[in-house]
Amino acid sequence: MVTDQTSKPVAVVTGAAGDIGAAIAAELAASHSIAAVDIDEAALSATVSRLRAGGAHATAITCDLTKTDDLARMADAAKRLGPVTALINNAGGAEALTLHSMTARTLARDLSLNLEAALNCFKALERALIEGGSGTVVNIASVNGLGTFGHPAYSAAKAGLIHATKAIAVEYGKYGLRANAIAPGTVKTQAWKAREEANPGVFDEALAWYPFKTLPEPEDIAAAAAFLLSPAARCITGVCLPVDSGLSAGSPGLPRTFTQSPDFDGL
Fold first, then answer.
1. CB 243 within 8 Å of CB 216
2. Which of 141, 143, 139, 142 is nearest to 248 (CA)?
3. What stretches of 172-216 adopt beta strand conformation (E)?
4. Which of 67, 79, 123, 154 is catalytic?
5. Active-site annotation holds for 154
6. Helix (H) or strand (E) holding 84
7. pLDDT single digits (tens) 135-179
8. Residue 266 pLDDT more than 80?
9. Catalytic residue among 8, 67, 123, 158
10. Is a pLDDT exceeding 50 seen at residue 86?
């Protein structure tokens, strides 16, 4: 049971109604009061209800992160909960799978939701994050920001988010603020599990690309976020931590002749 919540600092978690955001909020609830932010009011309410049932101090803040007025209202609501010391920019989504299918509308949407919203959210909470001299920002990027895996506009936005993370770390380090990114690969969210119902082999197909033959759950992303926010990471800033079962290290499509070599019997 989580206790003494009102004395805890506030962590703002965007995209909190989704699987990864909800897992991050649950992981941080032991050390923070949670300002759970999402555009989906019904799903957000369900997430906050689950958090409260577990003893967390959590508040739902419905917000369209692409709208300036909504961001200002969200920031004011979060600051009323207590000192805001952590921002986890988790909200995101992808539209066009290829450059050929990309339109001006889908490009604008991908950039707005995956890059501009995170930066604008940081700016909305900028003063609150530096006031205590030990603020932290964790931006949930993607392996798509590190390599070419489809969804090029989304990928460009996530690459920009990784660079923005470094910029925050460099410019705001003198205020005691740390900023890091996490780059998940395929995560076993409900969206992927729904795909599995339509295609029972979807995870096996995905795992063919991954050196480590286990895909992360939302809780694995949450654990990485909690580490980066913790005192154990007090001198870690400006980095992007892949939680991707080795995908960003390289795909294991080794030549068949290598795997059958008598000099290498470990595979």
1. yes
2. 143
3. 178-184
4. 154
5. yes
6. strand 84-89
7. 999 999 999 999 998 899 999 999 999 999 999 999 999 999 999
8. no
9. 158
10. yes
